[in-house]
Inverse folding.
């Protein structure tokens, strides 16, 4: 299996190296990062990282176009059999390797679980996985089809992406492995901006 790891970044100099370091390079056929017009040192840090890890591909928006636009650019550039999306301020736990080792092409989506910075556990189960639109799954690229993050002002873009995936009735495997650390709560996160009416 070939894996594409995708991440949009914007003014992420505080987190981007930790995020990139958490991606297991032995599984990363490509790491596609879309810089959304950062005004800090994010882009410079990405280019420096690329010198050590040439599988890092950097897309540049040139100006701030928003997270959904950047997610979609990453999706469209991906060439792997499976895509894994990680936000720039989050990290994979070492157990992500256990998840990746289970991916054999049988299922369209492999779910793992995540823990927040304040210790909340989001455990994916057969009963609840349809309710969660976050970044705790690895998706067969052929299953993505035309699914994209929406740029609607009334909700986070991953909601429509999630529903478009489910509309295809994908085959799903729930691994039960806690493999993602979610930097939440964080005041200027996408979640906070959308759900507290600031965006």
């Amino acid at each position: 299996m070939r894996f594409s790891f995708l991440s949009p970044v914007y003014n992420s100099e505080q987190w981007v190296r930790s995020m990139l370091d958490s991606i297991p390079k032995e599984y990363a056929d490509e790491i596609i990062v879309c810089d959304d017009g950062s005004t800090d040192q994010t882009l410079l840090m990405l280019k420096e990282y690329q010198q050590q890890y040439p599988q890092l591909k950097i897309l540049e928006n040139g100006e701030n176009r928003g997270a959904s636009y950047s997610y979609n650019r990453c999706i469209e550039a991906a060439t792997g059999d499976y895509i894994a999306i990680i936000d720039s301020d989050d990290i994979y736990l070492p157990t992500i390797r256990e998840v990746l080792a289970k991916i054999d092409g049988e299922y369209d989506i492999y779910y793992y679980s995540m823990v927040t910075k304040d210790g909340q556990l989001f455990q994916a189960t057969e009963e609840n996985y349809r309710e969660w639109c976050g970044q705790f799954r690895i998706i067969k690229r052929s299953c993505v089809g035309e699914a994209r993050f929406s740029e609607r002002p009334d909700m986070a873009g991953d909601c429509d992406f999630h529903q478009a995936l489910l509309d295809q009735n994908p085959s799903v495997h729930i691994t039960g492995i806690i493999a993602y650390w979610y930097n939440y709560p964080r005041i200027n996160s996408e979640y906070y901006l959308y759900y507290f009416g600031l965006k």
Remarks:
- Residues 141 and 154 are 27 Å apart (CA to CA).
- Strands lie at 3-9, 28-35, 56-60, 82-85, 91-92, 109-116, 121-122, 137-140, 172-182.
- Confidence is low (pLDDT under 50) at residues 191-199.
